[in-house]
Amino acid sequence: MGEVDPSFILPIEHRPQHSTLEAEAIPLIDLSILISPNPNSVDRLMESLIADIGDACKNWGFFQVINHGVPLESRRNLEIAGAKFFGLSEEEKKRVSKDEVNPVGYYNREHTKNVRDWKEVFDFLVQSPTLIPVSHEPDDKSLKELSNRWPENPPELREACEIYAGEVQKLAYKLLELISMSLGLQAKRLNGFFKHQTTYVRLNHYSPCPTPDLVLGVGRHKDSGALTIVAQDDVGGLEVKRKTDGEWFRVKPTPNAYVVNIGDIIQVWSNEKYESVEHRAVVNSERDRFTIPFFLHPAHYTMVEPLEELTDKQHPAKYKAYNWGKFYAARKRGNFRKLEVENIQISHFRVSGKSG
Ligand SMILES: O=C(O)CCC(=O)C(=O)O
Ligand SMILES: [Fe+2]
């Protein structure tokens, strides 16, 4: 293992098995009806699309979408500018380093469950500035404004990021509406939570690793937001834990598709009709891999709790309400230091205590 820093090395039981099955299995959903509806068949096709989305959310918590309306050019421009940025010297990238006070920009020391991830990232906010709580402490009501930090090089990165985020945001709302309808709710039932969203986009770079069996690009985790929409390149490495048997499945890269997954917030809103599913990113010894997740997050003041339309006497709420901004601030602390205690989880808010 030579030069690999021990902080990256996983406990034996969490090391990736490279016999992992390749999943055609996560559903592939065609959204073309949203872009060019045919008036003669739109109702029937919409009904079947909503049913497919509902099944994918229930059975996998993950699916891929094609014909999603995000212009390919906006994605390519960002992929190219992002690769140029990651190709700069460490010193230059660190001029836009993020830290505990200003958590946007460049970072290469992220930890998942106290093990260092084999990756470097560049994060930017979809709304800049974005308001968030100063601390995770419940009694501290102070807020701070976060603003994006742009590197000098490459100069085109900023515009590429902004255009891309605007395009994926439209897709995020379409998906949110489909998910809402699949739960039997009004299409726009969930949109209001995102008026002052804390959404951000991450550029991930996983460089080749001499010991891919001992480390992970991103350790196993569930996304804590509402929805995640990921552009992955053709290298592959994203793995999803299948709900039925806990097997890890590789998500096969599909050209120009997006991988979509349910986060913890939709698990809570839906009162566990849908569940957020564990996933991870493996690395390899030969090729650089680039991915771009878009993390759809609500306003910091959102109290996350099961939606009242989905609860009644027979189906009581499975979670107590929690404040999104405080939850996220507590979660993020674990990225900057090794914590002595378990990081905060939605299971801590579960009424009868099943692990989430
Ligand atoms: O890069 C990937 O394939 C997945 C990244 C991911 O799951 C995350 O950043 O939350
Ligand atoms: Fe993730």
From TrEMBL:
GO terms for molecular function: metal ion binding; oxidoreductase activity, acting on paired donors, with incorporation or reduction of molecular oxygen. Gene3D superfamilies: B-lactam Antibiotic, Isopenicillin N Synthase, Chain. Keywords: Iron, Metal-binding, Oxidoreductase. InterPro entries: DIOX_N, IPNS-like_FE2OG_OXY, IPNS-like_sf, Oxoglu/Fe-dep_dioxygenase_dom, Plant_2OG-oxidoreductases. It comes from the Eukaryota. Residues 197-298 form the Fe2OG dioxygenase domain. PROSITE patterns: FE2OG_OXY. Belongs to the iron/ascorbate-dependent oxidoreductase family. This is Fe2OG dioxygenase domain-containing protein.
